[in-house]
Design brief:
Two copies of one chain form a homodimer. Chain A has about 375 residues and is an alpha/beta fold. Chain A has helices at about 20-35, 50-55, 60-70, 85-100, 120-125, 140-155, 165-175, 190, 255-270, 285-295, 305-310, 325-330, 340-350, and strands spanning about 5-10, 45-50, 75-80, 105-110, 195-200, 200, 210-220, 235-240, 280, 365-370, 375-385. In chain A, helix 1 (about 20-35) packs across helix 3 and helix 4 (about 85-100) packs across helix 13. Chains A and B meet through helix 3, strand 3, helix 4, strand 8 and helix 9 of A and helix 3, strand 3, helix 4, strand 8 and helix 9 of B.
Chain lengths: ~375, ~375
């Protein structure tokens, strides 16, 4: 397998984008990434998206994006694994380039949720859960996570307010990110008075939806030897693991076994340990998920994720900076695009371009994208230089 | 890149499967393939499916199938490129194994169309076309192909009845396939009197829908050296190419440029020419598509696809046997599963297991899967021994 480098990144702001279609958003991010890479063409395009078939009446999105960005004849495919579709597309592009089958690939994550009426989008999001055993009985995706959070609070003795630092940190960082949907800091009071969505998850525990796209260009690292001045970001590890799709099927619903498996495999591939990770873009779709990710990925003891947050260790100056550009919470969570935003943000950190929330001297970054309620987890480690 | 072999195949009958859910169909094919391979686990599962999100209220299908077949912690992803989703999943599995990232992979194609009401399924199928420029103006997917067939007949002087042999050959072969949806031969009279769907496409020019799943297991070919008695089927080539998603955007709407690109790349990889192909599982979703595929893949001169059929050369005893197990026309076309059925059927031929329509001494087979109206075409060449 060839070592692979990311030589271009692109993203759109996340908001309700009423004046742009899904393909226009995807195209904007893709062309920005190509421009950043200094490339005009790639061999293959992998598009991560969860629900264009229902929300935008458009399947076959790989082909449509390839056509839209003028990449006729390139290979194109659409990859979907619910909210981890973005990282799944990145991993497909990575494997294609590392295998030698392809010399340059574009990975795009794109989602346009505003096209669906708000009652329908809740049903569409529930297709990430098990239809037969979860969605069918009326569990929305937020409700499933609320059950996990309630159980976790019971098991480990945390109160709801102990989760406040996750949201406060995300919004503090998102305020510096011009692409983030929510660009203002919040206070503890804002967290405490936030409207409840599915008890104990309030709007300040849940990532906001949005429309957006992010993209990266991947090439074999060996091609870059001739350009010593280039800011080379190498992919040091990629590992994916699944768990039962239904939360209730797990022996321990408050432990992310798939995060444990995929992060351990990634650490082994990269030859690093959790303490070596300078930036960790965790999948904080809900504050409970941020806590569970920190624990299963080896940054905190079991049940002690909130402790790390309360101690300030998840801030850009802390031991395990997460949500450094706002995370899913403040940047926004256009579901199939999120995994690609995480990778783009890690790369911004490794390039030293994370203005306002730069982690000093960041050299090794990790992005972890979660599909479903912890049922498909993909971890990537990237390294500068 | 490591050479890859297919060591297990599985499939379900194609019909209206009211007593089985999508995951049960996919699981049945997957477990059959694992049993055939003599394996209990794989590292990764790639599921090709077009529209489970809308037709079955279930996205995240890779994870669900991995869970359903007891493959907890395995990697899983869902790949979609409309009607070429099956071959796209096979190609993803192939690249993962050939790269060395994965040692054993399962590729599954599955689609359950009967769950959607018939008026909705037409809209869902149209998501394979360009929503903005085709579906939005009321063009169904059959209508787009009818425009192509009408134009082709005008350009090359063929009459509708000249396409009869495509349908007659498919049904004659499908009669011997226990997994085919339509298992009775048809006559020229049946073809002539068939009800029109979108002039000039009648029901005898169009593949029937259906519910079904097919699966294969892939491993590095080098792992099989120790088992000299095994029927080894090697993957000799894999190539994918796209074209504009909208038919009207092409300079030549009756020439499949993406088939030309992908088949030429595949021939080069395998070191073969069209004359070396013993079996060609073409994507005969419509009889016009069979003709266009034969031409763009180098088996017939431009405009002469129907000639090959009229001369009997597409039969199992002919020069270019197609639809040898019924093709899309008679086997049925559960859209996201079709590409995997094609590969399974090529392997049946190379193993000498295509009872009733066996091509004598078949050693090299080709499967070509088409997504959209020729906009995403994936060609695989497989070789016995």
């Amino acid at each position: 397998m060839r070592e692979v480098a990311v030589i271009g990144i692109g993203q759109t702001p996340i908001e309700e984008q009423w004046d742009k279609s899904l393909k226009e958003l995807a195209g904007e991010a893709a062309l920005a990434a190509l421009h950043d890479a200094g490339l005009e063409r790639v061999d293959s395009i992998f598009v991560g998206n969860m629900m264009s078939g229902s929300a935008n009446h458009q399947q076959h999105l790989g082909t449509q994006i390839a056509d839209w960005v003028g990449m006729r004849f390139a290979e194109a495919a659409h990859i979907e694994s619910a909210c981890s579709s973005g990282a799944a597309a990145f991993r497909a592009a990575l494997i294609a380039v590392s295998s030698g089958a392809v010399d340059a690939a574009l990975a795009v994550g794109a989602e346009k949720m505003s096209d669906s009426p708000s009652d329908e989008i809740t049903s569409e999001l529930a297709t990430a859960a098990d239809f037969d055993f979860e969605a069918e009985i009326g569990l929305s995706f937020v409700a499933i996570n609320a059950l996990a959070m309630r159980r976790y609070m019971f098991e480990h003795g945390w109160k709801k307010e102990d989760f406040a630092p996750f949201s406060i940190n995300a919004h503090a960082n998102g305020a510096h990110n011009p692409y983030a949907r929510f660009r203002s800091a919040i206070t503890e009071q804002d967290y405490f008075k936030a409207a409840m969505v599915a008890d104990p998850i309030s709007v300040m525990d849940a990532a906001g939806m949005g429309d957006g796209a992010a993209a990266v260009v991947l090439v074999p690292a060996e091609y870059l030897r001739a350009a010593p001045g280039a800011r080379i970001i190498r992919v040091a590890a990629s590992a994916a693991a699944t768990d039962t799709i239904a939360l209730a099927s797990r022996k321990e619903p408050t432990w992310l076994s798939a995060a444990e498996k995929s992060s351990r495999a990634a650490y082994a591939q990269a030859g690093v340990e959790p303490k070596d990770i300078d930036v960790f873009e965790a999948h904080d779709a809900f504050s409970i998920m941020a806590a569970l990710s920190l624990e299963a990925s080896g940054f905190a003891e079991r049940g002690q994720g909130p402790r790390l947050a309360l101690d300030g260790e998840i801030r850009p100056t802390g031991r395990v900076p997460i949500a450094t550009r706002g995370g899913l919470k403040a940047r926004g969570h256009p579901v199939g695009a999120t995994g690609m935003y995480q990778i783009v943000e890690v790369i911004q950190q490794l390039r030293g371009e994370a203005t306002g929330s730069q982690v000093d001297g960041a050299q090794i970054g990790m992005a972890q994208n979660i599909g479903g309620s912890g049922s498909n987890i993909i971890t990537h480690i990237l390294r500068a230089g």
